[in-house]
Amino acid sequence: MASLPNKLITQVAFKAGGDIFHDIIANRPHHLAEATPTTVQGCLLHQGNFGTNGSVIQWNYSVDGKPQTAKVVLQDIDLEKKQIAFKVFEGDLCELYKNMITTCHVETKNGIDFITWTIDYELITSDNPHPLSYLNFLIQFTKELESHFG
After folding, report:
1. What is the rounded end-to-end Cα distance, in angstroms, of the chain?
2. What gap in Å lies between CA 58 and CA 71, rounded to an integer?
3. How far apart are CA 32 and CA 19, in angstroms?
4. Which of 77, 33, 24 has its CA nearest to residue 87?
5. Rounded-to-integer distance, Cα 73 and Cα 141, Å
6. Closest to 21 (Cα-Cα) out of 84, 76, 64, 68
7. Whole-angstrom Cα distance, residue 11 to residue 107?
8. What is the pLDDT of residues 37-82, one digit of tens each?
C-alpha cells in the first residue's frame, strides 16, 4: 500500500531579521557551523553553487544529541519571497522517510519577521515515527541562529 503524503509546519518569530536569515540559509550556509554549533556542525557544497537551484549540499547536524547527515538538492529558491527548499535524497532521514522536502520561508506580519518551516514527507513504513524530532531541531536551529545575531 502506498503511503500518503504528510506535512508538518512550524512558524518561529525571528528578531534578528528575515533578510539576514534568508541570506545565510540560501547564500552562506557554510557559516552556520560557527553560528549554530549545537545544531549544525557542517555544510559541504558537493555540486553547483550556494544559493542556486539544483546545487547539492551535505549537512552535518545533531538531532536530540545524535549526529546526522543529509544530502539535499536546493530547489524553489525565490529571493523576493525569501524562500528555499531542500529535497533530501541521502542520509539519516532517508531511512524513515521518502520524498522529503523541507521548505523555509520568511514572512513579515505586523512588522515581525517569522520563519516558517514546512516538512513534506511520506513514511517508508506506517510504523515509522513522524519527524517531530526533526521539526524540533528546526525550531532549535532557528532560535540558536537568532541568538547568534541578536
Report:
1. 48
2. 4
3. 15
4. 77
5. 20
6. 84
7. 9
8. 999 999 999 999 999 999 999 999 999 999 999 999 999 999 999 9
Q: State the burial class of residue 117 (Cβ atoms within 10 Å of its Cβ: 0-12, 13-18, 19+).
A: buried
Dihedral sign for Cα 62, 17, 121, 140, please: positive
Length of the chain in terms of residues written: 150
> Residue 24, CB half-sphere, CA atoms under 13 Å: how many?
18
The 3-state DSSP class for residue 127 equals: coil
Cβ neighbors of 142 (< 8 A, separation 6 or more) are: 12, 14, 21, 115, 117
Alpha-carbon Rg for the chain in angstroms: 15
* 3 state DSSP class of 95: helix
Query: To which residue does cell 500518503 refer?
Result: 4
